[in-house]
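Entry
Fold in token form

___
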Amino acid sequence: MPIKTQFIMKTSLQATYESLIARHDLRPDPAQAEAIAVLQKLADQLDGYKPPVARHVIANFLQEPQAPARGLYLYGDVGRGKSMLMDLFIENVNVAKRRRVHFHQFMLEVHARLHHLQTGPEEAEQILPRLARDLANEAWLLCFDEFHVGNIADAMILGRLFSGLFDCGAVVVATSNWPPDELYKNGLQRDRFLPFIELIKQRMVAHRLAGAVDHRYEQMRGTLNYFSPLGATATGKLQAIFKQLTGGAEASPLQLPVEGRLVAVPRAARGAAFFSFGELCSRPLGSADYLALAECFSAVVIDGVPQLSPEQRNETTRFMNLIDALYEAKAKVFIAAAVPANQICTTGELSFSFQRTISRLIEMQSDEYRQKPHLG
């Protein structure tokens, strides 16, 4: 998402939220109202706040330094409205240099920029502070959606990077499905990651969005999630579901880092991703890739699942591994296929193994499954 660089006078965040309820665009939710009050308080604090990177050198010398503003870490279960609330915040906060970005996409950018800087003469320990200054100069209000740490490469640099951002006076707002203490849980060398968790607690207010209602599920109660045969009608239904899943947010491609490689996600927004069968199963993807996708996205839409022939052994194996990963993570899955689930793979050596996939596809269509929280 491009960095916001213009001041636009907005109505208050609180007023915007209340108007959406009055127009019945949102349902009243006490937990969301509480979070809006916290976000409004932060927006008020940032109105007129000038971090060191945004002040003139002479002003920095002559003026008393302002106390650093604490950011916000908004966490809670899937479907509680975290991303929607952050979107309302960033559109109604009076800050010129602000940026909203999916956290996975941000970390991909960080690694690319680190690689570029390492071609210069700087010592390694100087690179992260320099990158932090560059990022804070570009946008000192950083809003990260779907904050999650799933690999050691990210875990080992986050402490130094965020320390540099905070030293520059940057303010961070993040949404996450996990409380701070559960970030990178059971990760490699997690003891080296723990200081970063303490840094988050010091520089960000952790607020749990504890609503009892999964708004995403409530809006889609009774919605079918498996369509056949293939065609414009089925694709149109998937597109409508994806729009509903994302609240109409603009979807964009992203690159998901997995074990030193990048997995292309053609369309993603607010924790949901849209793929064709070919993009998932005709490419040389493996279990690690599918596990990463299942961890990153709480809802996955798949169009174009064919009836698989014995000759499509690789595609069949990948599809089975994909469904296993999504099922174990309790991700919501929406599929358009050429035939009903029990007819996707009926011949060939994998047809017996495919029976478990059929069982899981059927279970994934049940309300009981769809009410389970995402375990990514």
About this structure: The chain has two domains: 13-208, 215-370. The domain at 215-370 is CATH 3.40.50 (Rossmann fold).
